[in-house]
């Protein structure tokens, strides 16, 4: 649920970068699609998962195809506490 007083809500569904007050790799920022904002955190999809490896009706009986399917990345989401956001970057338009 998006709080109308929160400017981040305007950018739900857009690609943004959020820098945090933490150090290390997380201080370098997170870039992804802003999925939702609530009173506690902003959720970014930072790596999209792959499409299904077997279409309906395709048996995927080839063992090599099944192994390739299992080795694929499933994507990633970052939940960033609002009180840890140092900077929020978005397109001007």
Descriptive report:
With 93 residues, this protein is mainly beta. The chain has a single domain, classed as SH3 type barrels (Roll). 10% of the residues lie in helices and 34% in strands. It has 1 helix and 5 strands. The chain starts with 14 loop residues before the first strand and ends with a strand. The model has no long low-confidence stretch (mean pLDDT 78).
Name the descriptors.
single chain; 93 residues; mainly beta; SH3 type barrels; 1 helix; 10% helix; 34% strand
Brief summary of the model shown:
With 93 residues, this protein is mainly beta. It contains 1 helix and 5 strands.
Give the helix/strand layout.
Layout: E1 15-20, E2 30-37, E3 41-47, H1 63-71, E4 76-81, E5 85-89
Antiparallel strand pairs: 1-2, 1-5, 2-3, 3-4
CATH topology category name: SH3 type barrels
Specify Rg, calculated over alpha carbons.
Answer: 17 Å
Give the strand line-up of the largest sheet: 4-3-2-1-5
The count of DSSP E runs of length 2 or more, i.e. the number of strands, is 5
Strand residue content: 25-35%
Distance between the termini: 24 Å
Structural class: mainly beta
| Secondary-structure element pattern, one letter each | EEEHEE
Question: CATH class, please?
Answer: Mainly Beta
Low-confidence stretches: none
Helix content: under 10%
How would you sum up the global shape? globular
Average predicted confidence as pLDDT = 78
* CATH-derived architecture: Roll
Q: Kindly give the count of domains.
A: 1
Biggest beta sheet attributes: 5 strands, antiparallel
The number of distinct helices, counting runs of at least 4 residues, comes to 1
């Amino acid at each position: 649920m998006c709080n109308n007083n929160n400017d981040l809500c305007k950018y739900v569904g857009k690609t943004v970068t959020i820098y945090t007050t933490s150090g290390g790799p997380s201080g370098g920022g997170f870039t992804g699609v802003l999925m939702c904002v609530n009173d506690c955190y902003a959720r970014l999809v930072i790596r999209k998962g792959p499409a299904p490896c077997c279409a309906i009706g395709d048996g995927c009986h080839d063992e090599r195809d099944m192994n390739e399917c299992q080795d694929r990345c499933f994507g990633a989401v970052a939940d960033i506490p609002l009180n840890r956001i140092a900077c929020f970057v978005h397109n001007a338009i």
